[in-house]
Design a protein that fits this description.
alpha/beta, Rossmann fold, Helicase, Ruva Protein, domain 3, 4 domains, five-stranded parallel β-sheet, 12% strand
Length: 468
């Protein structure tokens, strides 16, 4: 399997002690999976290496022959202000540390510090560089609104401007190693967006999807982390978890809003530490996969109610995509209708039927609580029943009518006239109903008649009567 280079930019270690260079580069690889490391023993070569444009972070010793660390720090700040510099000195001197920070150093460490502190400082600098790069990339993409890889979104049928803005955002954040949160109602296509993110991420591993809804804490941990042999009764052999199966790819956790608090703690620790313990093991494993999560829940409301951890919520919100429901992009209904007609006909071995010209307009008046998934189900059902050249609208109207009769509001509030001080006459009520149907049908009487459950001639007659 091809090993992913991390991070995307190079990290340059500068020190005249070759033993420290080799030791710390191995520490970065083993503890944090950082393998894009370059080493330099001669301080005079540093600026030439930076001029090549491949380095984003420099770890710099202060006491070196030829050029001192402070002198190099100042030159880097003047010639390459976008490059971050961390001072790693053999001396613990407060005045020197303050002076280096004033010269633009991102952080200051002493070589005798614990390895966890040094690696943590490098990881913070990497995240800062990645976020700054993503902000610059997003700004450029938002201004241009041009997709560089439209083929990544081939599975998503849309002409909606808001959706294309989402595609632009996806292109900008897909290469990031930070978590990505996708929200939206059930059926809007959250997994399709996750697949597009994976295609654009440059991850060499697979996309592994897990629906975590209904998993208790133990099953959640076993599913993600795996277990060793003998971890619990029945664990006759070791089993890798989904994190290990994803490898250098993407781990997609769907319905993340349904996680228990105990499972949320485990997920938060995984995101913070980048490592996990298989059940029954005391040896940690590194996580190399990118984490993408999705939910139909309002996580902000759950966080406010105390059922979703605040620290996990803000960790997941580093990058956030919200997919609008189908009722807010009705211009996509004709495109989706045509796409699903072709898809259903092919899967059923039938010729693609011709829909009635008013079908798309009728569907556009519907709220689609199940969103794109519901429309797809409607179309497949209609095509399976199809016998004539023109597709019947009956199954669509039946599905729409059945959904509209569901008790979405309390029975006592269903009567729209209950709050009226004066009840309208039959003629007035009928006129208001006709006006609303005409408005929803965008002036097309045939569609308005279907919405009212009467014939087109009957509606036409009523309209003529109301105009007298």
């Amino acid at each position: 399997m091809k090993t992913t280079t991390y991070p995307d930019f190079g990290i340059l270690l500068v020190d005249d002690e070759p033993a420290w260079l080799k030791s710390f580069s191995l520490t970065l690889r083993s503890c944090a999976g950082i393998n894009n490391v370059h080493m330099c023993q001669d301080s005079r070569e540093v600026m030439g290496l930076l001029d090549k444009g491949e380095i984003g972070l420099v770890l710099l010793d202060l006491t070196m022959p030829h050029l001192s660390g402070e002198s190099l720090l100042q030159q880097i700040g003047e010639s390459h202000p976008a490059i971050m510099t961390i001072i790693v000195s053999g001396l613990n001197q407060l005045e020197t540390a303050v002076r280096c920070m004033k010269l633009g150093a991102f952080d200051y460490f002493v070589k005798t510090d614990e390895e966890d502190r040094l690696v943590g400082g490098v990881m913070r600098a990497i995240r800062m560089q990645e976020l700054q790069h993503e902000v610059r990339t997003m700004a450029d993409r938002v201004l241009s609104r041009d997709l560089q890889h439209p083929e990544a979104f081939i599975d998503i049928v849309t002409s909606d401007r808001a959706m294309h803005d989402i595609f632009t955002y996806v292109e900008a954040v897909a290469p990031s190693h930070q978590p990505l949160l996708i929200t939206g109602e059930s059926g809007v296509g959250k997994e399709l967006i996750a697949r597009a993110v994976h295609r654009l991420s440059r991850c060499s591993g697979p996309l592994v999807a897990v629906n975590v809804a209904g998993l208790d804490d133990t099953v959640f941990a076993d599913t993600l982390f795996g277990h060793v042999r003998g971890a619990y009764t029945g664990a006759d052999q070791a089993r890798p978890g989904m994190i290990e199966q994803a490898g250098d790819g993407t781990l997609f956790l769907d319905e993340i809003g349904d996680l228990s608090i105990a499972s949320q703690v485990k997920l938060l620790r995984l995101l913070q530490e980048g490592e996990y313990f298989p059940l029954g093991s005391d040896r940690p494993k590194r996580m190399n996969a990118r984490i993408v999560v999705a939910t139909h829940c309002d996580l902000a409301a759950k966080e406010a109610a105390g059922t979703f951890r605040r620290d996990l919520y803000y960790r997941l919100c580093t990058h956030h995509i919200h997919i609008p429901p189908l009722r807010e992009r009705t211009g996509d209904v004709p495109l989706l209708l045509d796409h699903f007609l072709g898809e259903a006909a092919k899967s059923l071995g039938k010729r693609k039927p011709t829909p009635p010209k008013e079908l798309a307009q009728v569907l556009a008046t519907y709220s689609f609580p199940g969103n794109v998934r519901e429309l797809r189900g409607m179309v497949h059902n209609a095509v399976s029943l199809h016998r004539e050249r023109i597709l019947s609208m009956d199954s669509f109207l039946k599905a729409m009518g059945h959904s509209r009769t569901q008790p979405a509001i309390p029975a006592e509030n269903r009567n729209p006239f209950r709050s009226f001080e004066r009840l309208p006459t039959f003629a007035e009520a009928a006129e208001l109903l006709v006006d609303e149907a005409i408005s929803r049908a965008n002036g097309v009487q045939a569609i308005a008649a279907r919405l009212l459950g009467i014939s087109a001639p009957a509606l036409n007659k009523r309209l003529k009567m109301s105009r007298k």
